[in-house]
Amino acid sequence: MKKSITKKILAALLIGGIMTMGMSGQMTEAARAQENPFGLVYQNAIEKNEPGKVNIKPVEYEVEGIKVAANLYLPADYDEKSSKIYPGVTVAHPNGGSKEQVAGLYAQKLAELGYIALACDARYQGESGGEPRLRDYPSNRIEDVSGMVDYLSTLPKVDKSRIGSLGICGGGGYTLAAAQTDKRIKAVAALSMFNSGRVRRNGFLDADIKGIPARLKRATEARDKALQGEIVYEGFLPPNSTDEQLRAKMAELPENTLYRDGIEYYGLSHRHPNATGSYTTESFIKLMAFDVEDRMDLIDQPLLMIAGEKADTLYMTNDAYGKATGTNNKELFLIDGASHIRTYWVPEYVDQAIKKLGDFFSKNL
Predict the structure, then answer these.
(1) Do the strands 55-63 and 278-280 form a parallel or antiparallel pair, or are they unpaired?
(2) Sign of the CA dihedral 238, 23, 142, 334?
(3) Which pLDDT tens digit goes with each residue over 27-61?
(4) Which of 53, 162, 168, 222 is placed for a possible disulfide with 365 were both Cys, Cβ 3.0 to 4.6 Å?
(5) CATH class of 2-364
């Protein structure tokens, strides 16, 4: 009974409460974001570009006429004047995240391994364009991944025949969906994959399937309100909360669970003003019709899926992986002791994931 109650609580939290509000002032800026010239908030982030080290280059481009803000990570031996060309990797950030957090960390680590890596803010989020803010349509996120491939393909120092993709959490689900049809992606990897459509539709752990009609009703009502200029938001981070309030909320939840660790990561340890953990309620209309599992058999590229062995989201990775019947070159790698969000930042878990990713991309790009 206790386990069932916990599942229902987490389902409700992760589906999100309603917030009708302006997004300004939702979250104060973390000290690290203020101090780092590139706004990066992860450990050992680049603070300045130096010869002989991995460098970072903020770039902008357009996808479907909307500005995309991205960070391009260049390997230590990168030289515009040399004839060397490099494999490239796109890195898609989690739901509610930004390029300055875990996506940037993994992009930097991949650049250390010799890849030109690109981490962008999804359109409608972060520093990228798009209105209303924080719209989360699967079709947009999937096209963002292909848009990163487009951008890398235009760079003369990138070998277009050796472009891979990594997606993290929700970005993992959208990256898998992109790879199903975009065969310019020669190898695809997902870390702590989160199947956004399944969770928004069924609730976390499939614990609120009966709530589908109510969520769709709420979404359509929110779309009507948007016509009148009122944007309604969902989110797992209570707006304008103090650190003390966030810690108190964490204490109410079981350890190593997605929502608890999410408050710690997004609200406290790796807070960033562009990572609100929120999205428009009307996005449910599109989200609930999406499921990355539906076309996993279309992936015929090499596939690597990494997840924490203790992650309460592991069922999503297992189910999607099992349906990836179009490729024989696939592997499921579990990190012992890791929960979902701990794979974002705990050094021993990140090191294991990067080693596996390095081997995977080296073999298949």
Answers:
(1) unpaired
(2) negative
(3) 334 566 778 999 999 999 999 999 999 999 999 99
(4) 162
(5) alpha beta
